[in-house]
Amino acid sequence: MKLKKPFILLLAMSLWGGSMIFADSAAQTVRVIVNGSVLDEGGIINDGKTYLPLRQLASSLQAIVAWDEQSKKVTLFKPNVHMFLFQDSKIFGNVDRGNKYTFNVFAQIDNLLTDISAVKVSIFDPSGRETVIDFKNINVSKDNFWYRTEDVKYNFDSSGKYAVRFFMKVNASDDWKLVSEKLISAQ
């Protein structure tokens, strides 16, 4: 009787360990790195196929994910968005800390393969605080357009990287999707 309990425990542990080894060999988790940043959710390899977290991957690639509930179809759109920052007629990107600058953002958008309902341009300070530069509800159904903000006065209070980000919405009820980013260094 004394050997029966350890034997049952040993058998249970062996079965559990074997199940874990089999499960691990059937589906492996992998780290996913996009442009040097590790995704929070890893991927899974199962039967030679790799499955990735689409929303997080699209966010890292600055792409738009559209889900069609009716057809159970997900579509990934990656428009080309090129941003230029102008101070008067000069392009700028590095600024002196503690100074106020007046600038505007010019964006050239092409390869837009979906309709969008709104755009937003924001600047994020080094601590992550957002200041909205401009947003507009628009109805764009062509594959390219240009967008320019009004002049904005902004004080670069601290040293570090300031991110100017361009967002789009496919539908008015959607969340903002980041599609481009330009960094300004303040020293």
From TrEMBL:
Print the keywords alphabetically.
Answer: Signal
Q: Which Pfam families match?
A: Cu_amine_oxidN1
Cleaved signal peptide residues: 1-23
The chain positions of domain Copper amine oxidase-like N-terminal read 34-111
For this protein, the record's InterPro entries field holds:
Cu_amine_oxidase-like_N, Mao_N_sf
**The protein's name:** Copper amine oxidase
Species per Swiss-Prot/TrEMBL record: Paenibacillus beijingensis
Q: Lineage of this protein's species? A: Bacteria, Bacillati, Bacillota, Bacilli, Bacillales
